[in-house]
Amino acid sequence: MALYIVTGSYTAAAAKGMMANPGDREAAVRPLVEAGGGKMISYHVTTGENDFQMMVETPDGAAMLAPLIVAGASGTVSNLKTVQAFTSAEFTAAQKKAGQIAGGFKPAGA
């Protein structure tokens, strides 16, 4: 399973709708993530450059992208960004692997 951090912003239409009909956005988004084959780990409303951040776990990239396509097509979110996240254990394994393969690498211009 892969972990992803998704950030985005609400559009003016979304803000208008949320004022008229307040509701739990995490509860609304969770079924969409699950329908794509993923699991929502966390959801936060944020200040600053983005309006929300969520961490999602999915078996593959398609399971991550499908819900994002649906959300983006709704016209209520914009500036969606997704980055893959790695656990400390995964990063430690990558460091070990890097040490094993570094000797065989020929840098540009070398």
Distance between the termini: 38 Å
Largest sheet: 4 strands, antiparallel
User: Care to count the β-strands?
Assistant: 4
CATH architectural group: 2-Layer Sandwich
Oligomer, anyone? single chain
Shape annotation: elongated
Residue runs with pLDDT of under 50 for 5 or more positions: none
Total number of helices: 4
The secondary-structure element order is EHHEEHEH
Describe this structure as you would to a colleague.
The protein has one domain (2-99): Lrp/AsnC effector binding domain/regulation of amino acid metabolism (RAM) domain (Alpha-Beta Plaits), CATH 3.30.70.920. The protein is built from four helices and four strands; from the N terminus they run E-H-H-E-E-H-E-H. The model has no long low-confidence stretch (mean pLDDT 95). A hairpin with a 6-residue loop joins strand 2 (39-45) and strand 3 (52-58). Helices cover 43% and strands 29% of the residues. A four-stranded antiparallel beta sheet has the order 2-3-1-4. With 110 residues, the protein is of the alpha+beta class. The chain is elongated, with a radius of gyration of 18 Å. The chain has helices at 12-20, 25-35, 61-73, 88-101; strands at residues 2-10, 39-45, 52-58, 77-85.
